Structure to design on (1086 residues):
C-alpha cells in the first residue's frame, strides 16, 4: 500500500505544478454572461454563416469514443461468452444444483442359522422444511401435536446436520395418530411432511447385546477415520448413523451401504425448486455370525438366573458375570454373554438422557462392559492345568510326584504358612489328584519349586504360551489382554514401594500357581485355553463372523476361514494326564457335582475355580469341554463375587450344555460350600 | 417529461396542440419515403436513429417480460405504461421547436436546479437503494426520478450556453464559468446522493463543453484536476482519521471492482453473479425464460441495474452483439446528424445525447462484465423503470426534433 501512496503523492505534486502553469498562462477577456439580453443570439440556429471550425473534428472524436466503448464491450463479451463460456456455465450449474445424500439401508446381522439378530424397521418420521422454523404458530402446533417443547422443535428444524437442502427431522417413530392428524390437516402444517425411514431394530431386545453393539450418530473424528477405513468406497458425513460398539462397530464398512444421491435445483435462498438425477443407494451387506441364538439365549438366561439367585441369597456384591461358548474345532463363538446387559434399542435414533443416566449409574454396574472379553479377573483354580503343564515341562513335578496335604502348608517356613481350601487336608496327593481335588498344597509345592528353580519364570512362560497376557484377537472391539505377573512387572508396578516390597517373593509363585494374586485373565482367554487342552494344544482364533452375504442375490461374499492362532506343544502324556484330571473333577471330586453331569449323554471334562477377591465372596469360575473323547464345545463361565465355582458358574455351564444336548439339568443337589 | 413544471410556456403550447398533430403527423410522415439529400421530400423522422431506438425498446420489453415471469417486482404492464408515456413525451418533444431553448439558458438553469432539488423537498422525497432520488406523485402509487429528466435539461442548458461561443471558447474565464454552471446540478445530485446519475451529468456536460470549443490544454488540466480530486477523495476515505467523503458501500464497490474475488459472498457477490450470468449465456444463450441465474434469484436486480446480465444470459453473445449493434447505430447516427446540422446549438444537443447514451451503455454493461465499478445506472431503453424509459424516449424525441427543425433551405 505504501508504495502506491507514494506514487500517488508524486503524481499529485507534478499535476499540481501543471495546473498552476496553465492557470498562470491562461487569460480571459470576454465577460461571461448567461443570456445575452434581447439581442440576436450569437448561435441560436439557422445562421449558416456561423463559424464551425473544430466542430467536425470534435464530433469525430465523440464517434471514436462511442465506437471504442462499444468495441471494448464487444471484446470483453467475446472473451466471456465465447472463450470462457464453459467455465461460467459450470459456475452457473454449481450455483443452482445441490446434492442431497440418500441413506442406504444398513445390512442385517443374522445368527448362524439365519435367524435375525439385527434388522431394520420402517419408522414414520415427521420432517419439516427449514423455513417452518420461522412460523412460530406452526412450530407451536407441531410441538403440541408431537408432545415436545416448542423450543426443541424449532431447534431441530434449524439444525443443518442432515444437509442444508434436506428436510429436517422433527420427530422419529411417531404414532399413527399423529401421522393421520398431519395428513388430515395439511393446511395447518405447510412445509411439514411424514416420511418413512429405516431404523435399526434389535428384535430380541437385549439378546447378545454385547456382541451386536449399537449404532449412533457419527462423531467428527469418525468422519475421516471411517472413510479411510472403508478404503474410500464410503463417504461419511455428519449426521450419518454408524456402528459405535460390538459387531455394528467392527464390521461398520460391511454393514454400511453406499449412499445414493439426489441432485436438486435450488434458488438463491436454497429452496428446492425441482429434482434432477438420482443415484439409488446401495444397501449394506448382511452378516451371518457364528452365534447360535438358542445357545446364546440359554447362556444369558442361566447367567442372569444364577446371579440373581446368588444375589438374593445374600451375596450383595454378586451382580456381574460372563459366559463364553466356543467351538473348539474352529474357533466359532457360539455364545458370548455378559451380565448385566442392556437393550441396543435404546440407542436407536439417539439415546435419551434418562436412559443414558440409567446405563451409566453405579447401581447399573456398568452394563455396557462386555465382561466376556473385557472383564479381567483372577482365574482361581481353573489355571491349575496350566500350572501342571509348567511343572511337568520344567521338571518341577512328574506324573509320579506325590504330595501330602494336611490343610496347612508351611513350605516357606512356619512364619508364612498357607491354608489349602480344604483345611482338614486332602491327605496323599499326586499331580493328577491334585487337579481333581483342586488341592492347593500340591500347587504351593510347584510354586515353591519354581521359586527355587534355575528357570524361575517357567510358569509365566507356560501361561503366556497358552495365550494369557495377550489378546486372543476376537473380532470385537475392546478386548482386554489380562496380566501375567512376573518379577520385572512387579518391580515396575510397585516402583514407589520399598525394594523389598516390590521384589518377587516365594508367595508370589505360590499365588500364581493357584491363580490368585496379581494374575488377571478374561473369560474368553480361559475358554481358549481349555479349547487348546481339548484339541491337543491347537487354539483357533475365536471369531464371530461366519460370512458376509452378498448384498444382491443369494450367496456369500466372504466366508470365514478358521485360522489357527497358536499351537502349544505339550507332550501327549502330559495332555492326557490333565484331561483325565479334568474328567475327574466332574465325576470324582464330589457326588453332588457329578450328579449334575451324569444325566448328560456326553462325557464332560472341566474345572472349578474360586478366586479370592477384596470383597466377601470369591469370583466363581467354571470351564468345561465336551464331549470328552471328541471335543467340540468349550464353555467358560464366571460370576463376580458369586462364591465358589460350583455354586454358580458350574450350573451356568451345565445349563448351556443342557441347551446344546437338549438335556436340562435335573439335579438339585448342592455341593457343600467350600469346594473349589 | 416534467410536464408543466418549469419548461416554460413554449412547451405548454405544444401540449395544447398535440392532440390534433398526432394523427396528422402519423399519416404524413411515416409514409414519406427516405430520399437522400433532397430537402423537399425529406422525412420528418430521422429513421436510422428512430428505428434503432424502437428496436432497443422492443428488445427491452421482451427481456422485461421474461424477467416478470420470475421476479415479483418486475411488472410488465407497468413497463409498457412507461413505454407509452415515453413515446407520448418523445412525440411532444419532436413537435417542439427546440431552437427556442437556445435563448432560454436562464430558464433552463432554473428548471434544471429545480428538478434536481425536487426529491430534497421535505414530504415529496422518497428513498430507495440508499438515495433520495425519487419523488412521490400525489394521489397515485407512483414515484418518479426527476434526475432522469434533469439530465436532459442539463443537455439543453449546456448546449445553449456552449452555442453562444459559436465553436470557440476564447477565454479561460468563460471556460471556467461553463464548468462552474455544470458543477451546480452535479453537486445537487451528490446530495441525494446519487453518484451514478451525477457522473452521467458530469460526463455529458463536459462533452458539450469540449465540443463547444474549449482549448485542449484547459480540458486536459480539468481532467487531471478531476482525477486528482477523485484520487484524493478515495485516499482520504480509505485512511482512518481523515474525512470520508465516500460512503463505505461505495468504497467497497471500488475494492470489489479492483479485485472481485475479495469478498465473493458479500460485496463481490453481485458482480460475480452478473459475470456468471453473462458468461454462462454462451454463444446462443439459454433461451427465453431459461435464465437460471436470474430466474432462481442468484442475479440481483436482474430487471433493473443488472438487466444486461439477464439479456446476455438468455440471448447469449448473439443477443449481446445485437443490442450493441442497435446502440451503435443509434449513437453513431446521432453523431452523424450532428455533423450535418449547421447550428451549433443543435450540434451540441446531439453531442450531449450521444455522450449520455455512450456513457450509460459503458457504465451499465461495463459493470455487468466487470470492466466498470458498480453504480446504479439503468441501461437506456432496456432497464425496468418508467422514469428512465420516459427520459430516454424523450431524448430520442430531442434528436428527432433537431432533425425535424433543420432549415429547409439547405
Amino acid at each position: 500500500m505504501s508504495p502506491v501512496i507514494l506514487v500517488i503523492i508524486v503524481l499529485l505534486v507534478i499535476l499540481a505544478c501543471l495546473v498552476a502553469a496553465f492557470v498562470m498562462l491562461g487569460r480571459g477577456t470576454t465577460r461571461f454572461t448567461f443570456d445575452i439580453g434581447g439581442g440576436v443570439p450569437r448561435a441560436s440556429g439557422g445562421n449558416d454563416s456561423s463559424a464551425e471550425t473544430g466542430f467536425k473534428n470534435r464530433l469525430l472524436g465523440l464517434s471514436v469514443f462511442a465506437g471504442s466503448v462499444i468495441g471494448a464491450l464487444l471484446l470483453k463479451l467475446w472473451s466471456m461468452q465465447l472463450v470462457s463460456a464453459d467455465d461460467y456455465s459450470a459456475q452457473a450449474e454449481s450455483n443452482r444444483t445441490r446434492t442431497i445424500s440418500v441413506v442406504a439401508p444398513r445390512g442385517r446381522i443374522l445368527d448362524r442359522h439365519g435367524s435375525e439378530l439385527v434388522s431394520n424397521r420402517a419408522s414414520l418420521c415427521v420432517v419439516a422444511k427449514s423455513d417452518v422454523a420461522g412460523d412460530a404458530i406452526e412450530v407451536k402446533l407441531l410441538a403440541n401435536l408431537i408432545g415436545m417443547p416448542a423450543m426443541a422443535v424449532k431447534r431441530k428444524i434449524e439444525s443443518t446436520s442432515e444437509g442444508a437442502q434436506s428436510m429436517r427431522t422433527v420427530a422419529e417413530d411417531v404414532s399413527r395418530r399423529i401421522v393421520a392428524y398431519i395428513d388430515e390437516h395439511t393446511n395447518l402444517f405447510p412445509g411439514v411432511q411424514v416420511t418413512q425411514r429405516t431404523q435399526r431394530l434389535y428384535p430380541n431386545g437385549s439378546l447378545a447385546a454385547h456382541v451386536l453393539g449399537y449404532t449412533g450418530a457419527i462423531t467428527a473424528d469418525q468422519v475421516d477415520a471411517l472413510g479411510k477405513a472403508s478404503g474410500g468406497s464410503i463417504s461419511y458425513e455428519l449426521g450419518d448413523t454408524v456402528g459405535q460398539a460390538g459387531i455394528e462397530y467392527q464390521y461398520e464398512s460391511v454393514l454400511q451401504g453406499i449412499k445414493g444421491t439426489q441432485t436438486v435445483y435450488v434458488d438463491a435462498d436454497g429452496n428446492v425448486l425441482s429434482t434432477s438425477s438420482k443415484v439409488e443407494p446401495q444397501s449394506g451387506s448382511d452378516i451371518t455370525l457364528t452365534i447360535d441364538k438358542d445357545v446364546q439365549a440359554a447362556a444369558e438366561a442361566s447367567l442372569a438366573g444364577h446371579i440373581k439367585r446368588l444375589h438374593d441369597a445374600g451375596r450383595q456384591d454378586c451382580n456381574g458375570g460372563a459366559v463364553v461358548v466356543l467351538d473348539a474345532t474352529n474357533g466359532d463363538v457360539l455364545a458370548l454373554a455378559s451380565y448385566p446387559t442392556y437393550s441396543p434399542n435404546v440407542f436407536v435414533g439417539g439415546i435419551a438422557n434418562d436412559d443414558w443416566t440409567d446405563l451409566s449409574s453405579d447401581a447399573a454396574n456398568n452394563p455396557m462392559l462386555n465382561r466376556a472379553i473385557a472383564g479381567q479377573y483372577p482365574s482361581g483354580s481353573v489355571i491349575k492345568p496350566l500350572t501342571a503343564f509348567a511343572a511337568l515341562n520344567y521338571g518341577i513335578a512328574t506324573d509320579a510326584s506325590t504330595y501330602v496335604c494336611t490343610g496347612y502348608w508351611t513350605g516357606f517356613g512356619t512364619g508364612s504358612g498357607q491354608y489349602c481350601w480344604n483345611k482338614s487336608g486332602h491327605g496323599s496327593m499326586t499331580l493328577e489328584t491334585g487337579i481333581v481335588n483342586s488341592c492347593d498344597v500340591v500347587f504351593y509345592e510347584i510354586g515353591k519349586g519354581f521359586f527355587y528353580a534355575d528357570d524361575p519364570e517357567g510358569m509365566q512362560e507356560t501361561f503366556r504360551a497358552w495365550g494369557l497376557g495377550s489378546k486372543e484377537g476376537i473380532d470385537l472391539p475392546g478386548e482386554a489382554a489380562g496380566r501375567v505377573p512376573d518379577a520385572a512387572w512387579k518391580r515396575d508396578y510397585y516402583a514407589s514401594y520399598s525394594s523389598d516390597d516390590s521384589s518377587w517373593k516365594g508367595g508370589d509363585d505360590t499365588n500364581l500357581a493357584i491363580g490368585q494374586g496379581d494374575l488377571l485373565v478374561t473369560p474368553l482367554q480361559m475358554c481358549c485355553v481349555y479349547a487348546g487342552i481339548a484339541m491337543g494344544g491347537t487354539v483357533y482364533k475365536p471369531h464371530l463372523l461366519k460370512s458376509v452375504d452378498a448384498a444382491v442375490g443369494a450367496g456369500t461374499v466372504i466366508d470365514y476361514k478358521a485360522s489357527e492362532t497358536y499351537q502349544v506343544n505339550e507332550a501327549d502324556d502330559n495332555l492326557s494326564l490333565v484331561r483325565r484330571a479334568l474328567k475327574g473333577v466332574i465325576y470324582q471330586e464330589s457326588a453332588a457335582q457329578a450328579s449334575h453331569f451324569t444325566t448328560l449323554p456326553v462325557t464332560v471334562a472341566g474345572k472349578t475355580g474360586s478366586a479370592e477377591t477384596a470383597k466377601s465372596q470369591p469370583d466363581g469360575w467354571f470351564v468345561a469341554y465336551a464331549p470328552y473323547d471328541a471335543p467340540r464345545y468349550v464353555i467358560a463361565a464366571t460370576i463376580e463375587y458369586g462364591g465358589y465355582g460350583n455354586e454358580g458358574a458350574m450350573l451356568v455351564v451345565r445349563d448351556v450344555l443342557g441347551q446344546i444336548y437338549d438335556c436340562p439339568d435335573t439335579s438339585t443337589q448342592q455341593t457343600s460350600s467350600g469346594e473349589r | 417529461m416534467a410536464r408543466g413544471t418549469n419548461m416554460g410556456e413554449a412547451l405548454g403550447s405544444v401540449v395544447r396542440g398535440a392532440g390534433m398533430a398526432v394523427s396528422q403527423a402519423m399519416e404524413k410522415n411515416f409514409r414519406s419515403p427516405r430520399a437522400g439529400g433532397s430537402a423537399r421530400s425529406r422525412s420528418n423522422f430521422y429513421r436510422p436513429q428512430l428505428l434503432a431506438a424502437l428496436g432497443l425498446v422492443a428488445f427491452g420489453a421482451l427481456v422485461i417480460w421474461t424477467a416478470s415471469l420470475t421476479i415479483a417486482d418486475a411488472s410488465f404492464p407497468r413497463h409498457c405504461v412507461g413505454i407509452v408515456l415515453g413515446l407520448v413525451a418523445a412525440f411532444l418533444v419532436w413537435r417542439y421547436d427546440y431552437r427556442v431553448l437556445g435563448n432560454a439558458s436562464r430558464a433552463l438553469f432554473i428548471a434544471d436546479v429545480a428538478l434536481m432539488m425536487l426529491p430534497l423537498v421535505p414530504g415529496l422525497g422518497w428513498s430507495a437503494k440508499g438515495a433520495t432520488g425519487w419523488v412521490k406523485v400525489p394521489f397515485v402509487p407512483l414515484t418518479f426520478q426527476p434526475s432522469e429528466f434533469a439530465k436532459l435539461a442539463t443537455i439543453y442548458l449546456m448546449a445553449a450556453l456552449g452555442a453562444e461561443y459559436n465553436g470557440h471558447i476564447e477565454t479561460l474565464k468563460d471556460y471556467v464559468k461553463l464548468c462552474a454552471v455544470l458543477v451546480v446540478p452535479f453537486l445537487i445530485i451528490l446530495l441525494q446522493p446519487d453518484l451514478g446519475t451525477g457522473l452521467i451529468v458530469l460526463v455529458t456536460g463536459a462533452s458539450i463543453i469540449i465540443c463547444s470549443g474549449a482549448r485542449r490544454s484547459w480540458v486536459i488540466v480539468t481532467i487531471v484536476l478531476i482525477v486528482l480530486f477523485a484520487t484524493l477523495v478515495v485516499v482520504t476515505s480509505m485512511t482512518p482519521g481523515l474525512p470520508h467523503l465516500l460512503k463505505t458501500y461505495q468504497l467497497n464497490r471500488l475494492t470489489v471492482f479492483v479485485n472481485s474475488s475479495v469478498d465473493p459472498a458479500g460485496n463481490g457477490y453481485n458482480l460475480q453473479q452478473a459475470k456468471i450470468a453473462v458468461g454462462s449465456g454462451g454463444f446462443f444463450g439459454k433461451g427465453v425464460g431459461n435464465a437460471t441465474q436470474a430466474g432462481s434469484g442468484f442475479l440481483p436486480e436482474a430487471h433493473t441495474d443488472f438487466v444486461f446480465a439477464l439479456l446476455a444470459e438468455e440471448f447469449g453473445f448473439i443477443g449481446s452483439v445485437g443490442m450493441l449493434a442497435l446502440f451503435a447505430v443509434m449513437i453513431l447516427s446521432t453523431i452523424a446528424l450532428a455533423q450535418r446540422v449547421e447550428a451549433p446549438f443543435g450540434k451540441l444537443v446531439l453531442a450531449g445525447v450521444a455522450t449520455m447514451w455512450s456513457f450509460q451503455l459503458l457504465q451499465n454493461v461495463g459493470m455487468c462484465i466487470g470492466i466498470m465499478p458498480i453504480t446504479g445506472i439503468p441501461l437506456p431503453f432496456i432497464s425496468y423503470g418508467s422514469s428512465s424509459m420516459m427520459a430516454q424516449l424523450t431524448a430520442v424525441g430531442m434528436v428527432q426534433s433537431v432533425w425535424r427543425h433543420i432549415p429547409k433551405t439547405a
Q: What stands out?
A: Chain A touches chain B through 68 residues (CB under 8 Å). Residues 43 and 189 of chain A are 75 Å apart (CA to CA). The domain at 380-548+560-567 of chain A is CATH 3.40.710.10 (Beta-lactamase). Chain A is about 35% helix and 20% strand.
